[in-house]
Design goal:
Blueprint lengths: L4 E2 L8 E8 L22 H6 L9 E10 L6 H15 L6 E5 L5 H11 L6 E4 L12 H12 L9 E5 L2 E4 L4 E2 L8 E2 L7 E4 L2 E4 L16 H4 L5 E5 L7 H9 L3 E6 L7 H12 L3 E6 L14 H4 L2 E2 L5 H13 L5 H10 L1
Parallel strand pairs: 2-3, 2-4, 4-5, 5-6, 12-13, 13-14, 14-15
Antiparallel strand pairs: 1-3, 6-7, 7-10, 8-9, 10-11
Helix pairs in contact: 3-9
Length: 343
């Protein structure tokens, strides 16, 4: 980790820690017209901040370069590093909030992990960009300004981990990436954004209902040393059971299935997953559909087979919650279902 650099602003302004991890927001290409062929994570946090001179009117900034990666390559050890650093910063009376610059590919997973393991009410806001910093009309600077503005707002306290992107404010639990190229790539399907940020104004139009941060039993310390291995399989026409059997043989602790529709599973795959449950492996049904929820089937299927419903969590967030739940000692369907119902 690099030594933090501090920009001096008037004492009346809140102090926000900006943690940079790389991603497209820190990407660069030789051609300014290029928005796809670029190298992610090569621009340092100081240059990111220098591209947003308006920050000086919003907050005093402490900047740290935590990593310089393409978020598609996000390792679990970096998740632990981020969570531990965020918790340490927020424990200080000198820090009013944290902003994390991140790649878009796995932002929703990182945000949800922090939503469950950060133990403070102070704002934590993630942001990113769909265009590299070198591009014409790069969206990173405005997104970064918006994120710092949200983190500096008293209204963001107690809302859990947030994502500020394209002038909208989203809950970490709700947000998903919905486009491969558009600057409004992040949405909260079904539920909608929490509010918006524009020209220095922050407005929340609804609050977060489910427990988060200090209201959860999850701790990053319980998984930092050894993450329970949880993988994802998909159900589709003609699927074989080879993937499930291979994962069972490899010793996974849990499997999330991206089912069709309402989490329905091809009969061949369902048989393999039922066999996995008999061997002590946790199985969670999610859906490959972009929105909606997976209803628990009760006695008709889930109870009989020992499956857990992911509710409104997509497969990737369901994996995050399952890893944390397994690390906390919960492994049976009877123990896991209330966790998925609550968080």
């Amino acid at each position: 980790m690099n030594t933090p650099t501090t920009t001096s602003f008037p004492r009346a302004l809140p102090r926000i820690a900006v943690l940079a991890t790389g991603g497209t927001i820190a990407g660069s290409a030789a051609d300014s017209a290029q928005t796809a062929g670029y190298q992610a994570g090569v621009v340092g946090v100081d240059k990111l901040l220098a591209a947003v001179p308006g920050l000086a009117n919003v907050a005093r900034i402490d900047a740290e370069q935590i990593a310089s990666i393409d978020s598609k390559d996000m390792p679990l050890v970096l998740w632990a590093t981020l969570a531990e650093r965020v918790n340490a910063l927020l424990a200080s009376d000198d820090v009013d909030g944290v902003v994390i610059t991140h790649g878009t590919d796995t932002l929703e997973e990182t945000a949800y992990l922090l939503h469950l393991t950060v133990k403070h009410a102070k704002p934590v806001v993630l942001t990113a960009a769909m265009r590299p910093s070198s591009a014409l009309s790069a969206d990173g600077p405005l997104n970064l300004l918006g994120a710092v503005t949200v983190a500096a707002s008293p209204a963001a306290c107690g809302q859990g981990v947030l994502v500020a992107f394209n002038n909208r404010i989203h809950s970490a639990r709700d947000i998903v990436k919905t486009s491969t190229y558009a600057v409004d790539a992040f949405q909260s399907p079904e539920i909608g954004a929490l509010g918006w940020v524009q020209d220095g104004r922050v407005e929340f139009q609804r609050g977060v209902v489910r427990p988060h941060t200090s209201s959860t039993p999850f701790s990053i310390g319980s998984v930092a040393a050894e993450w329970p291995v949880v993988e994802i399989v998909a159900s589709y026409a003609g699927v074989a059971r080879v993937m499930v059997d291979a994962l069972v043989a490899a010793g996974v602790r849990g499997i999330v299935v991206a089912g069709t529709g309402n989490g329905s599973i091809h009969a061949t795959l369902q048989s393999a997953l039922a066999d996995a449950v008999k061997k002590g492996i946790a199985v969670v049904r999610s859906s490959r559909v972009g929105s909606g929820h997976v209803m628990r089937n009760g006695a008709a299927s889930d109870d009989a087979l020992g499956f857990v419903s992911a509710g409104t969590l997509n497969p990737y967030k369901a994996r995050v919650l399952l890893m944390l739940a397994l690390a906390s000692g919960k492994s049976s369907a009877a123990e896991l279902q209330p966790i998925f119902d609550q968080y």
